[in-house]
Structures are given as C-alpha cells and as structure tokens.
Write a structure and sequence with these properties.
Layout (H helix, E strand, L loop, with lengths): L16 H11 L10 E2 L5 E2 L29 E6 L4 H13 L4 E6 L12 H7 L9 E6 L5 H12 L9 E5 L1 H8 L1 E2 L2 H19 L4 E6 L1 H5 L4 H22 L3 H6 L1 E7 L3 H21 L8 E6 L12 H15 L3 E3 L12 H17 L13 H23 L3 H6 L2 H18 L36 H6 L11 E2 L10 H17 L4 E6 L3 H16 L4 E3 L8 H11 L3 E5 L2 H17 L4 E5 L9 E3 L5 H12 L4
Parallel strand pairs: 3-4, 3-11, 4-5, 5-6, 6-8, 8-9, 9-10, 10-11, 13-14, 13-15, 15-16, 16-17
Antiparallel strand pairs: 1-2, 7-12
Helix pairs in contact: 2-3, 4-6, 6-8, 8-10, 8-13, 10-11, 10-13, 11-12, 17-21, 19-20
Length: about 625
C-alpha cells in the first residue's frame, strides 16, 4: 500500500471566489448572483453560495448539545399504527417489532376513521397483547382529546405488567396540542391542565422511565405554516405548558424533563437539518431564560404529511428518504417515517415495510448515526439555521405578547399568520414555483396503483372511556369549566389542488370511457417544436388531460386543421419556435378555430389573433386547467 497521500485537486487549477463570481456573471449574462437568491414562503432568503464570510467556521468549538447516541441504535425507529381494529393493530405491531422497529406509536381515534379505536382497557390490552414495553417504547398519539383518559388507560395496562417501573412509555399528554388540532377543549384549559398536572406526577412516580407530556408542532407544519412559525409555535407551546403546570404546582424543571417535542420533517434535507438544529438552540435558550438546568431536548421527527401525494405515490418513497436523512443527520432522538401510501389510506405491509426499512438502511447501511452533528460548522447550515432561529424567536415573542400560546390560539391570531404563509405557499404550488414531482411535474396518466388496506370497521365509538382516569384521579376526573374554543389548524396537502383536477378527469374517464384530451398543434419540424410540445403535454397532464399529437407533423395549415378534426378534440395548443410563431401562428390559430376548436392555447408568450390563452413558465397552472376543464364540460 502506498504511503503517500493522493491530492485529488492537484490536476485542477486553483480558483477563488472572484473566479466563481466572474463565471456566474458570464453564465447569467451580467444579471449577477443576487438573481439566484430565492425566498421561502416564510420570507427567509436562501442564497446560491455560502462561505466563510457568512459564518466563521473557525469559531466553531463543538457541536450543539445532542443526546448521547447509542452505538447500536443511534435513534429510536418508531413506527406509527393507524388500523382501526385493535386486533389487527396488534398483529402489525408484533410483525414490525420482529422486523426492525424499536418502538411503536398508536394513533388513536375512537371512531376508527383516522386511527385505532381504543376506547377502554380491553381494546388497549388487545392492541398490546404480547408487546414488551420494557424493550420497545409504547407511545400514544391522541387524535381528538387532550390525552389524559387514554394515558390513564395505558397506565392501568402498564400496572398489570411484570415490573412496571422498567416500562418505557410515552403518554404524550398535550392539552394545547388538542386545542390546535380540534379547536375545542371541553371543560376548558384550566381543568385540562389540572388533570394533566395530577396525572403527570402520578405517572412519574409509577413509571420512572416514561415521559408524560408532548409538545406537538406538527399541526403548524401540516396547516401550511413556515419553518419559523413551526419552531416559534413549538417553543411558545412548550413555555405555555410549563407556565400553566407551574401555576398548578408542577415545577418547571420537572415538567421540562417530561416533554417530548415533535416536529414535522420535509424532503428538503438542507433546510430541515437546519430546522432541527435550530429547535435545540431555541429550547436551550428558553431553559436558560427560565433558569432551568440545561438538559438534552427529546426530539421526535415525523415525516411530513403535507408533502405526500395520492397520485404517483411511489415518489413519496424518495420524499420520505430525504426527510429521514435530514432527521438522522440533524440528531433527532426519535424518527417516524410515514408509509408512502399515507395520503391514500391505511397502509398495508408494503407501506409499513418501506417506512421501517428506509430508517434501517439509513442507520445500518448508510451509517448516518455514526457521526455526531455532521452538519455542524457547514456555512449554509449555520447561516440559515441562525436566520431561522431569529425568525422563530420573533414569532415566539409575538405569541407571548398575545398572552401565550393558548391565548393566541383562542384569539385566532396565530392561525391568521399561518394562513398568510399558507396562501403564499399554495400560490407557489399553483404557479409551479414549488414543483411536485409526479403531480405538477412529470405526471403519469397511466400509473400503477399502490396498495392500501381494505377496512371493514363498523364499531365507531364517541370517545375514550374516563373510567381509567377516575380510578387514578377520582378528585379531578369530573372537574370542568367553560369550553376553550379556537379555530383549528386544518391540515392541507400541497398536491390537493392538482389532485382535485385529476379526480374530475378520472371521473370523466370512468363515466364516458374516454380521457379528456387536447390537440397538440405542432408547427415546423420536430427540432423546432419538441421542447414546447413536451412542456404543453406535461402542463395539461397535471390536470388529467391527455395531449394528442398529430401522427405526422403537419406541413400546412390545412393539414393541421385536418389532423385536429381527426383527433376528436375540442381544445388545441400550438407548439413551435418563436421564429415560427412570427410567420405562422395567426393562420394556424384561425384554421384551428374554423375547424371547430373551442379554445386555442399557445405554448409561449407570443400574442396573436385567435389565440385565447398563453401557457408558459410562471402562469397560474391551476387557473388555466380549471378553465380547460370548464371548456371540456368536466366542471361547471
């Protein structure tokens, strides 16, 4: 083996930043690199290049404080279970634990529509039959309630197990989380936090390895909020939880030790690595301000639901992989990857297998947990993370001025700010500034369907029984006040506007046996029109409209009109070069109109008589497709 080190850059000329800027100036024809700066929907700038002048890497003395990572299990692989039948949930839990999952989280929904129907101790015992909570953490994800009743049922189940003090449980009680999700806390926040405080103290005594509380920021993300709003809302949520519990007698130090913070994680791994690292900085600053001893933040990252699509759901595997990478590199303690079919329904074994194997591959084959804080000191990560933390802190201060997280929600103030960002985000989706592969870009009209579970569940319940809570806290179980009300943070999915159009087109196909179509009127030879033909075909396919090309490129307006009539289409889009448009577009558009075209589009910005609409980069695609659907009679 050679002893000399190889210098891989030895054969390349040395370059500095000035050389790069000169190359950029040439490529952009004098417009300058500032034209490459883009803004997130939350208003933060993302630059094309980060360097030492943005963040002094020489000043880095160490990574951010992270929880010590286990050599064999760097993070907790937590799988979510949503099947309504407790018996089926149990079979899925045991199967997944045997195949690499290290903890389980049961999504609760008494109706069975959006989770497992756990209403009493019998249901829970069925779901957790033969589950060893001393080995694998059992966590609850409360759908509609604050979590106290379900947490009490889990506590009573745990008491019946061998050596309850060794059980690893995450009760995840979260009154403010219930308010932001559902918009109502029956009996009011004061009563809810009294139950929460008493139950937290009871659980801590009985289960020293458990956590009782959750601060869930996912609803902010899923409602379309920005990264800064998610982080600002998260720390406001955490501080308000400590404040309300402290007023009842639970010390902030004790309450802080019981919180699991839960964030959504998207596919843009650069931004999301910075987001998770900023979350730790922000909470550390809060503990410092509250004079609470610094302790590792327990951080759970759950892959985003809003990024997942119903059409071409196979691409969701890539989205989840990017999000999982970000969570692992950023040092999340717990990672939950949603099944790639999550937007379609309850996952089958395939969806759960891909979800868990995404993490196993990241951990065991890619070794992402071997290095602590690998992004620390990176110019982009540190600069954007600092900008994000400052923006989140400003959001936090705004919420505090409104009286804290609960008061801001009940005044609908925080929701209004999220709505502004959501509107900007959906505008970017509509104009394809934010592309969605397989939906707004490169759609497949003939796609392979992904499997989802066939659900047969006809035993909906109204709510979780409070019997368990009465057994643990008889003095508080029935205490109520005036209901707390707020506008819920309604979840969205970014692909929904395009998916609605695809749904309408699919209904037309089912009822008539014919897919909605548009004629691709090409001008000139293939080399001239091919680029815009592909653009137009993909443009209309995002709305479920098939592009039909003439079998032979027309050489005259007469041939073009004849090909249009033979296609049986009602709409046409002209595709050609700018030079060809100058010469032929008016006659071509007129010929198409005379041949029966209801509406003539043109791919490009050229204006001409008898051209009704132009399609090009930057146009509102949703608006254009809605108009096309109306012309075709798909919608009114």
């Amino acid at each position: 083996m050679a002893d000399d080190l190889l210098s891989f850059s030895a054969d390349f000329d040395g370059n500095d930043e000035a050389s790069w800027l000169a190359a950029v100036d040439k490529a952009l024809k004098g417009r300058g690199p500032e034209t490459l700066v883009r803004k997130t929907p939350g208003g933060l700038e993302v630059h094309p290049l980060y360097r030492e002048s943005d963040f002094a890497s020489s000043a880095v003395t160490g990574a951010l404080p992270l929880s010590p990572r286990d050599e064999h299990l760097p993070w907790d692989i937590r799988q979510a279970f949503t099947h309504p039948d407790p018996a089926q949930t149990n079979a899925e839990i045991l199967r997944d634990l045997e195949r690499g999952v290290s903890s389980v989280e049961i999504k609760l929904d008494c109706s069975g529509q959006a989770g497992c129907s756990i209403t009493d101790g019998v249901n829970l015992a069925t779901a957790l039959n033969n589950v060893r909570a001393d080995i694998a953490t059992v966590a609850l994800d409360h759908g509609g309630g604050t979590g106290t009743s379900a947490a009490a049922i889990l506590a009573l189940w745990a008491e019946k197990q061998d050596n309850p003090k060794t059980l690893k449980l995450a009760f995840n009680i979260d009154p403010l989380g219930a308010l932001q999700r559902t918009g109502v806390i029956a009996g009011g926040l004061d009563a809810a936090f009294k139950r929460c405080a008493a139950l937290t103290e009871t659980l801590m005594l009985r289960f020293p390895l458990a956590t009782a509380l959750r601060v869930d920021a996912r609803p902010i993300h899923e409602a379309g909020g920005s990264e800064a709003q998610e982080l600002g809302g998260m720390i406001a949520h955490g501080v308000d939880t400590l404040r309300r519990l402290s007023a009842i007698g639970v010390s902030p130090e004790v309450a802080a030790s019981q919180i699991v913070f839960t964030l959504s994680i998207g596919q843009n791994y650069g931004l999301n690595i910075a987001k998770l690292r900023a979350a730790r900085r922000l909470w550390s600053r809060c503990l410092e301000a509250l004079v609470i001893e610094q302790r590792p933040m327990i951080l759970q990252a759950v892959t985003s639901a809003r990024m997942l699509t119903r059409y071409d759901p196979w691409v969701n595997m890539l989205r989840n992989s990017g999000a999982c990478f970000a969570a692992a590199v950023a040092g999340a303690d717990i990672v939950t990857v949603r099944p790639f079919t999550d937007a379609l329904g309850v996952a089958t074994e395939l969806g759960r297998r891909i979800a868990r194997n995404t993490q196993i591959i990241a951990m065991e084959e890619s070794n992402l947990g071997r290095v602590s804080d690998p992004a620390g000191g990176a110019w982009f990560t540190e600069t954007y993370g600092s900008d994000l933390a400052e923006a989140a802190w400003a959001d936090f201060q705004s919420i505090e001025k409104e009286g804290g997280y609960g008061a801001s929600l009940m005044a609908d103030a925080f929701q209004a700010r999220i709505g502004t960002v959501r509107a900007a985000r959906m505008k970017d989706i509509s104009k394809r500034k934010t592309p969605l592969t397989g939906v707004s870009e490169f759609p497949l009209l003939e796609e392979i369907e992904a499997p989802v579970a066939e659900i047969e569940w006809n035993d909906p319940k109204d709510g979780v029984s409070s019997e368990g809570l009465k057994k643990l806290l008889p003095q508080l179980a029935d205490e109520v006040g005036e209901d707390a009300m707020a506008e819920p943070l309604w979840p969205i999915r970014l692909a929904e506007p395009f998916e609605r159009l695809r749904d309408h087109a699919a209904t037309r196909l089912e009822t008539t046996g014919k897919r909605p179509s548009i004629f691709l009127a090409t001008l000139g030879p293939l080399a001239e029109h091919n680029a815009r033909l592909d653009f137009a075909r993909n443009f209309f396919a995002t709305g479920g409209i098939n592009g039909i090309s003439p079998p032979v490129p027309p050489t005259s307006t007469a041939e073009l009109a004849a090909a249009f009539q033979a296609s049986g289409c009602q709409l046409a889009v002209i595709c050609g070069s700018d030079d060809r448009y100058e010469q032929e577009v008016t006659s071509a558009a007129t010929a198409l109109k005379e041949a029966g075209a209801q509406r003539v589009y043109l791919a490009g910005k050229h204006e001409a008589d008898d051209v009704d609409s132009n399609i090009h980069i930057g146009v509102d695609v949703i608006h254009a497709l809605e108009l096309a659907h109306a012309e075709l009679g798909i919608t009114s």
